[in-house]
Structure formats: structure tokens, C-alpha cells
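Researcher: Here's a chain I'd like modeled. Treat it as a single chain, no partners, no ligands.
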Amino acid sequence: MATATPALTGTSASADTATTSATPGGWRRARPWAMPLIGLGVSLAFLWPYLVMLLGAFRPSSDVVQTPASVLPRVWKWTTFPEVLGDERFLAWLRTSVVVALASTAIVVVVAIPAAYFTARFRFRGRMAFLFLVLVTQMFSPTSLVVGIYREFFTVNLVNTYLALILTNAAFNLAFAIWILHGFFASIPRELEEASELDGCGRVGTLWRVMLPLTLPGLVTATIFTFIAAWNEYVVALTLMLDDSRKPLTVGINSYVTGYEQNWDQLFGASLIAIVPVVILFALIEKHLVGGLTSGAVK
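Model: Modeled as a single isolated chain. C-alpha cells:
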């Protein structure tokens, strides 16, 4: 009997363990329906401001400021978006944003690719100092430099020009693009370049035909972030662009609500239209963007 007791005890413990593991806890039972509800709540919290803007675009301005506030419009107005799209001022602001964002992104990509490739593949004196300098430029906010930027462009007579905004946006986004592309180029084995050179490709041909396709996720990431930063820039544009017809969307749409007129419905409608290009861009290149952000996480 004495020798059988441990065996019985072990058997009982094993049975208790099996029973415990077979019976899921309270969280395990609730997780299949609790997690979707939590995700839905978080999604609604992020989407609520956009829903407020959408509903605000479908109500008269007098209804927006009326108290007590109501979630749904008291009176529905369906002409807001046609009014905004037919506004010559809005079309001018949209044109400025498109031109500045595309030109800034193009400059950043053209400059960042050779700079990142050269610093990743060649060792030269001052290389680390150059990379450190590129990183330091990310620490300065355009807001803290806006007075100096205005003074510099005023000296060369570039205030109130597209070129001023393009150069400023390109300068402030170039460092990020160089750093992210530098990491991608550095991760590519040198044997691929050597094989390409043996096949007759020169340095430029290797960069164009071998390296760039392999760094496509990083290139897409740098491109989309540069475009969004230029598209959303506000402080420098507010300072440099004096002519109302040359202002970008971020600055121009504030003209809908001033001390003399309050067109809240048009402000909400213009804001929603300004979001559309970025949303479409994300939808088109989402898989490349996720690959660029997560590259290197798994070896």
C-alpha cells in the first residue's frame, strides 16, 4: 500500500491537470467574441472624426454651430461637394498641392537613391560623419527654422513660388529616404553585384537592373512617406505662400472659415476631398509599404 500511494497521487495530479487544460478559462471562452468587439471599438474611435466631418459636410453651416449639437444633421444639404469641386480657389489649391508633393517626392527619390547606394557600398573618409549629419537634420522641426527659411528665400526672391515649397519639402524629407534606402542597400549581398558585373553590367546598370528591384519595398516606403509629408505640410506653406491662389490645400481650406464668413460645410467637404489621394495611394501600394516597414524583422 505504501508503494502504491505515489502512483495514485501522480495519477490524480495528471487527471486534475488534464481536466484543467481541457476546461478553458474565462478569457479563452470570451476571446473569440471579445477581440472583434475591442477591434471594432478601436476602429470607431479612429474613424469617428472622419464621420463627424462627413456628417458636417451634409449639413448647413448654421446647423454645425447650433446648440445643442446633434449627431445627424437636422437639415440635410447635398450640394456641398459639387460646390467645393466647382470652386476655382479649391482647384488652384489642389493643383498647388499636387505639383509640390509630386516634385518634392521626385527630387527626394532621385537624390536619395545614389546617396544611399554609395554610402552603403563604399567606404570613404567622412562616411560616418555624413550619415550622422543626415540623421541630425531629422532632429530639426520646420517650425523652429521657418524664420530663417523665409529670410533665405526672401533674399533670393523665391517667396510665394512653388520652387520654395518644393525645395523645402525635399530638404526636410531627404534624410529619412536616405536612411531607409541605406539599410536596404546594405542588406543586399555583394555577390549579386559581382554576378551582375560578370554578366557585363556597369555600376549604373547594376543599380538600375539588380539593386532597385530588390529594394522596391524600401523605395515605395520612402516615396509614400515623402509624398504624405509634402502633402500635409502646413507651417512653411503658411509662411512662404502669400498669394491665395498659390496656397496648397492645407493652408487654403482655412479660407472657408474666417471672421467674415463661416462655411463649415465646405471646410469639411474640402478636408475629406484632400484625404482621398492619400487613401488611394495607400490602397494601391499597401503590400509594398508593409514589406518595407517590416523588412529585417525576420531573418
